[in-house]
Amino acid sequence: MKIGFIAYPASGHLYPMTALARKLQARGHKVICIGIPDAESIIRAAGLAFVPYCEQEFPAGSLTEAYAPIAKMHGMEVVTYTCEKVFAPLARAAFKNLPRILQDTGIEALVMDPIHFFLELVPISMSIPYVQVCCALHLDASGTTPPFIFNWPHETTPEAVSRNVEGVHQVVQHSLRY
What we know:
CATH superfamily of the domain at 2-60 and 90-136: Glycogen Phosphorylase B
CATH topology of the domain at 2-60 and 90-136: Rossmann fold
Helix content: 40-55%
Order of helices and strands: EHEHEHHEHEH
Number of strands: 5
Number of helices: 6
Shape: globular
CATH class of the domain at 2-60 and 90-136: Alpha Beta
CATH architecture of the domain at 2-60 and 90-136: 3-Layer(aba) Sandwich
Strand order of the largest sheet: 3-2-1-4-5
């Protein structure tokens, strides 16, 4: 089976996805990793085939440039900035470019990182089976634990749970704006 992999182009996402891709490749599947140019070196170093996409919108080095301002940000400011300046433009570029790449490569199934919000709509629209593998910290919507972007202590009081639920709500609302 020819399996495509799409991971978010950051080492914490690429390393676990390439490990999984290598395992499937070792079991006899043809694996093709699809990514923006910034992901190429990690994918090729893992011994995997790489097919670039979104090269016009995200040329090599563009993510380093896009993420530079985050070093001076905290909390929701990071979420807002990342959604506006990285996630939304990457999603628009992927919606535009991914269907052609999937068709050209003959991908039969897709493994995707859900940090690419709504990208599953592409394989759904093309009747390509897909699975999502989360390579990010868990966002607990129950409120039992604080959202990972806040430095709130773990507490079990009703006030803390309410605060955590409100924090999740803030993250989701900021994420969906873009």
